[in-house]
Amino acid sequence: MTQPRRRTPLVSLSLSMSTIALGISLLSLPALAGPPPPPPAGGAPAAPPATPPATPPTAPGTPVAPPPGGPPPAAPDAPALGPNAQGETQYKAEDYEAAAIQFHKIKNNEIPGDQPRAQFWLGKTLYKLKFYSASLSIFDEIVQAGPAHPFHKLTLPWLASLARELPEGAEVLQKIGRYKPTDLEDEAFDEVRDELYYLLGRYYYDKGDLPQGIALLDQVPNQSDYYIRAQFFLGVAHTRNFAGEPAVAAFKNVLRRAIELRKAEEKKRKNARKKKVKVEGGKKTKKRGKRKDRTETELTYLEEMRQYEHMASFGLANIFYMVGKFETAIKYLDKIPVESPYYLRAVHAAAWAEFRRVEVDDTNANGYYQRALGYVHTLNAPFFEEYL
Fold first, then answer.
1. Are 71 and 52 in contact, with CB atoms under 8 Å apart?
2. Residue 264: what are its φ and ψ, rounded to 5°?
3. Which CATH superfamily is domain 299-388 in?
4. What is the Cα–Cα distance from 45 to 263, expressed in whole angstroms?
5. Using an 8 Å Cβ cutoff, are 132 and 162 in contact?
6. What is the DSSP-derived secondary structure letter of residue 112?
7. pLDDT, tens digit, for every residue of 340-356?
8. CATH 1.25.40.10 in the chain, residues?
9. d(Cα 36, Cα 48) in Å, to the nearest integer?
10. Looking at domain 82-231, which CATH architecture does it have?
């Protein structure tokens, strides 16, 4: 595992200023040899004429040392110069290893250059090399530096990209949370603003600031890939605020949008089958692209949205169960299929809901108890023995 890079301490500005002040005071001292010049007649002593210090001659070919602290960093949109330009050329040519070495040298002051710019590009290069933890470590240094860093705002979209690659234990959300909601209105974030609304909303939700989290999650538009995720956490946040109606509305938005996606996918597959039959009938073949291998824990986008659909059904059932509408709760629990990882929880909750229906309608108590017993038998089935 790549160890996070330790930050290099910056040279104190106060130390440089005190050094300059000391040099000026030494230059203003009188010469040690010889008496001071006599004062002019008939007046106050005049100050000695200021003589600039002599500059020693520089031998031909000797490099001139840069001023203390190095050259000031250029604006983010300014063209790169010198070693930075070389590294960025390598980056654009996808020679990421060479670019990483170049930016690392500039960042650590091994070669002269724009250090803040090299730091930002080093984070980008490590991301391209799929060294996500190392990339996060570099971008975290920029986040810690705050808005004073010239690339502080441009780091935010890269944190969003890292949030897709790293688990939540990497605390990417905590780093995104150091930005203000108003920062998202920058036009540079037009393509990723929906994702940033969701991620920053998740941060405030996890932090316990439910009003701010709700305000951000509610801004994710309907057609966004993050709409279902945002609406699910919006429903949970409203539930934690004991606001039943908006919670139900958010969970139903999840179900509605998930059904739309599933129908669109089914239509797409149907059209693809028709096209395939037509092409094969015309004796034409088309090479298939290579399928990207997935691990056992990876999910496609539609599979993940399907799980959010099941969780939203469970959330709706929980709300109606709490207000005593047990029949409606069971209706949503029955929407969770047997292949869902939440199926057994739904069966368990449905058993309790059937058992408690007697409180509302005791005349049909026998039927409710029988169905509750049926759910319990399902939980005790040998097929589920290893799951409970």
1. no
2. -65, -40
3. Tetratricopeptide repeat domain (1.25.40.10)
4. 98
5. yes
6. -
7. 999 999 999 999 999 99
8. 82-231, 299-388
9. 10
10. Alpha Horseshoe (1.25)
Sign of the C-alpha dihedral computed for residues 255, 261, 263 and 265 taken in this order: negative
Separation between Cα atoms, residue 211 and residue 83, nearest integer Å: 47
Tell me the pLDDT tens digit for each residue of 121-170. Answer: 999 999 999 999 999 999 999 999 999 999 999 999 999 999 999 988 78
Q: Identify the helix (H) or strand (E) that includes residue 17.
A: helix 13-27
Q: Which of 114, 13, 123 is nearest to 73 (CA)?
A: 114
SS3 content of the chain, % helix, strand, coil (to 5): 60, 0, 40
Both structure tokens of 334: 């029955």
- What pLDDT sits at residue 379? 84
User: What is the C-alpha to C-alpha distance for residues 173 and 114, in angstroms, rounded to an integer?
Assistant: 29
Distance (Å) of CA 165 to CA 130, 136, 159: 9, 11, 10
Q: Which two tokens stand for residue 323?
A: 């207000």
Scored b (16 or more CB within 10 A) or e, 83-122 reads bbebbbebbeeeebeebbebbbbbbeeeeebbbbbbbbbb
Rg, the chain, Cα only: 33
Q: Which residue has the tokens 């929906």?
A: 194
